[in-house]
Design goal:
The protein is an alpha+beta fold. Helix content is 56%, strand content 9%. It has a four-stranded antiparallel beta sheet with strand order 2-1-3-4, with helices on one face. A hairpin with a 4-residue loop joins strand 1 and strand 2. Helix 6 runs antiparallel to helix 7 and helix 6 runs parallel beside helix 9. The longest helix has 18 residues. The two termini are 33 Å apart.
């Protein structure tokens, strides 16, 4: 086992701890007194820019855990692996955490064509009311919808939307399957509604910022 694999296992272990995984595989790799989720996600994003590291992260089971950070609900649980019915509980995560997770997701899926199918892999999540299937492509769109009801778009929300568009764009680039799925889940309509609000004069600077950072 090389050092990068050990590092990936540690990051997955941190996700397992934060998500209260019932049957964790890698949490023993973590010093529970000194880890920080945001720092872990930022380091993970850097690792996922490497093709081999991204592939290993997915193989080790980190992908559904990473996606689950995007869905905020006080009584949510995530079916980490449908075949083994391993259940992951989760709650609310800050916008900083969700931005870091979005950045890591976008970095991973844009690596090579082999990884493009990850963007439409289903993760089964219970929201406290019903079970729902989400993917690395649909979850960022749910965040965009979540903020469409706000009367005023703050710079903090704009930054979160930037990362959503980055993750969506990374999934769609050169990915026919994801593009079809994007159409099926009304992705264009969600983006139009998001951008419509930003076109107003008071949000013009935020719109420019959104496009500048969203395409990076």
């Amino acid at each position: 086992m090389n050092d990068i694999t050990k590092e990936l296992m540690k990051h997955i272990g941190i996700l397992e701890i934060e998500l209260h995984v019932e049957d964790p595989k890698y949490s023993r790799q973590v010093n529970v007194d000194s880890f920080d989720l945001l720092d872990s996600l930022e380091n993970l994003e850097y690792l996922l820019s490497d093709v081999d590291a991204a592939r290993d992260f997915h193989t080790l089971g980190g992908w559904p855990l990473l996606i689950s950070l995007l869905i905020n609900d006080e009584s949510s649980v995530v079916n980490q692996n449908v075949t083994t019915e391993a259940i992951v509980s989760q709650g609310f995560f800050s916008d900083d955490i969700r931005m870091a997770a979005l950045w890591a997701i976008g970095t991973a899926v844009k690596n090579i064509e082999e990884f493009t199918d990850w963007s439409i892999e289903q993760v089964n999540i219970h929201t406290g009311r019903t079970w729902m299937n989400v993917t690395a492509l649909s979850a960022p769109l749910l965040i965009l919808q979540e903020h469409q009801k706000f009367e005023y778009l703050t710079p903090e929300i704009a930054k979160l939307q930037q990362k959503c568009i980055y993750a969506v764009g990374s999934s769609l680039r050169g990915n026919i399957k994801a593009q079809r799925y994007f159409l099926d889940i009304s992705g264009p309509t969600i983006l139009v509604h998001t951008l419509h609000y930003l076109v107003s004069e008071k949000n013009g600077s935020l719109l420019r910022s959104l496009f500048y950072y969203g395409v990076r």
